[in-house]
Amino acid sequence: MFKKKVLVVIAILMVTASINAQGLYVGPQLGWQKASSADAGKVMFGAAARIKLSDALGIEGSINYRQEDYNNGDVTVTSYPVMVTGMFYPISIVYGAIGFGWYNTSFAYSSSLHQLGITDQTEQKVGWHFGAGVELPLSGSVSSPNTILTADIRYVFLNYAFQQFPGSDNLKSDFIVITVGLLFSL
Questions:
Q1: Is residue 45 part of a domain?
Q2: In a domain, 83, yes or no
Q3: Is residue 64 domain-resident?
Q4: N or C: at which end does the chain have fewer Cβ atoms within 10 angstroms?
Q5: Can you give the pTM of this predicted structure?
Q6: Burial letters 51-81, b for 16+ CB under 10 A, else e
Q7: How would you write the pLDDT of the chain (186 residues) with one tens digit per residue?
Q8: Which CATH number belongs to the domain containing residue 89 in this structure?
């Protein structure tokens, strides 16, 4: 038991030292997202925090707000995805991304669907994503920037559980998101 505690303390110290050496960045994100079966693409916004663990590895945490309509406005879906993304940097400004998100999602159905006995609902769901992006230093040195401009594209696998109504069998909720962020060093 004592060995486990010592290993946990050592791991925490190593991560803390790595964070201090590589940097913690936080800032706003703005994006455009479009689900497979959504009526149209929409703007989304939120915030992100990135930690560079080494020159080749990083972690990002983000929270966003997104809303989309399905079936000609019969269903409005609102969600607040909280995402964790592992990032790997084959070169210093280009990264690959893979991770998962927790989606707290509300479904608001139209009055015509309410007449069919369908009620609004809220659910929590986990989705997976992968993608790639660029990270451009705007101020400070290249190896230790103060401000970073980020841009990426991600594909998210997310299978919503729509209530059954005419046309709901064909609705697909996987989506593409393109984001731009401005991250500041802490």
A1: yes
A2: yes
A3: yes
A4: N
A5: 0.82
A6: bbbeeeebbbebebebebbbbeebbbbebeb
A7: 556 654 454 444 445 444 444 689 999 999 999 998 999 999 999 999 999 998 899 999 999 999 999 999 999 999 999 999 999 999 989 999 999 999 999 999 999 898 888 899 999 999 999 999 999 999 877 667 899 999 999 999 998 888 888 878 888 899 999 999 999 998
A8: 2.40.160.20
